């Protein structure tokens, strides 16, 4: 689990018209750190190099912020639920719509 495998390619053998063909499959770094910005990564679902589409979703951290504020200020507890900065950033492949990564608001 080190950064040394960034950009490495993995050989994959496929059979095409009864002949073995060696394909170079780009290997996704195992410990990629997603942020709230779009990333250029290889989608492991469709094997395309894609720029992720970031979708903000309600996460555990956002709900916990609302619960912490609930006993103090009854109406203020909705503020974290309305703030985009408190949401989890989910990185989706624009081609196959698969989730390729996630940046959680509090919980990793
Ligand atoms: Zn994909």
SSE layout and pairing:
Elements: E1 9-16, E2 19-26, E3 40-42, E4 49-51, E5 53-57, H1 60-69, H2 79-82, E6 88-92, E7 99-103
Antiparallel strand pairs: 1-2, 3-4, 5-6, 6-7
The structure holds zinc ion.
The best one-word shape is rod-shaped
Strand order of the largest sheet: 5-6-7
Radius of gyration: 19 Å
Q: How would you sum up the major sheet?
A: 3 strands, antiparallel
Report the order of strands and helices.
EEEEEHHEE
Helix content: 10-25%
What are the segments in which pLDDT stays under 50 over at least 5 consecutive residues?
A: 1-7
Span between termini: 17 Å
Broad structural category: mainly beta
Mean pLDDT: 80
Counting DSSP H or I runs of 4 or more residues, the number of helices is: 2
Q: What fraction strand?
A: 25-35%
Counted up, domains total 2
The total of beta strands comes to 7
Bound molecules: zinc ion
